[in-house]
Amino acid sequence: MVNFFDFLLLLISVDNFFRQAKQILEYKVSILRIPILITLTLVFSFSLLALSTNEALAVGGAAAIGGKVYTRNHMGDYRETGWANITAAGEHGRFEAQFNMGGNYYMFVPPGNYLVTAEMPGHIDQSYDVTVSEGGSVTLNFYMEQSGIPIPEFNEYATMLMTAVSLLLVVFIMRKRNTANPIN
After folding, report:
1. Helix and strand numbers, DSSP H then E, in the chain
2. CA 59 → CA 2, 33, 105, 135, distances in Å?
3. What are the DSSP E strand ranges found in the chain?
4. What phi-psi label fits residue 61: left (phi over 0), alpha (psi between -120 and 50 degrees) or beta?
5. How far separated are the first and last CA of the chain, in Å rounded?
6. Do residues 83 and 144 lie in contact, with contact meaning Cβ atoms separated by under 8 Å?
7. CA distances from 173 to 167, 168, 176, 177, 178 (A)
8. Which has the higher per-residue pLDDT, 99 or 64?
9. In what order do the strands lie in the sheet with 126-132?
């Protein structure tokens, strides 16, 4: 059995241990507080800068291609969209654009000549030849028109399969309902 004094000494030593640990942690946090705040401020500033700019920025000898993609809404007005596939094909390879929610796209490419193409299901593809110089940028907007060709939702075999499965489910449910509620 533990006597009272041994138990009290144990509590005091545990209390001293936690006080020392707390002091060490407070000291380490106070030392690291300023570099952490500086780092967080820089990350936040650069994030705001990246989100707030609408212009494509060129970096390190690269060139930028950017712009917006517009499609017509149900009223016939052009509205920004982010669903198109934008690619630039040239002597240095094929590059794909990055989109944001507002219909803006951008891509960084090596300087040179490119065929920039916008593709979107149900719309007519558009292509433009552009030349970008080192450190330069080109703004290229696309106004997509509907092609009139319906967008296939399913393969024709998948449609038949889904119809057959639906009919089987209806028959199964009807039989189940008839056996559960017999008519007297």
Report:
1. 2, 10
2. 72, 32, 16, 7
3. 63-72, 78-80, 85-90, 93-96, 98-99, 104-109, 112-119, 126-132, 137-139, 142-143
4. left
5. 80
6. no
7. 10, 9, 5, 6, 9
8. 64
9. 93-96, 85-90, 112-119, 126-132
| pLDDT above 70: residue 76 | yes
CB distance 66 to 103 below 8 Å? no
How long a stretch of residues is the chain?
184
Task: Kindly report, residue by residue over 23-43, the tens digit of the pLDDT.
Answer: 776 776 566 666 666 776 766
Tokens of residue 111, six digits:
């300087």
CB 132, CB 63: distance < 8 Å: yes
pLDDT in tens, 81-96: 877 889 999 998 999 9
Q: Which residues pair with 88 in a beta bridge?
A: 95, 116
Note if the pTM is more than 0.85: no
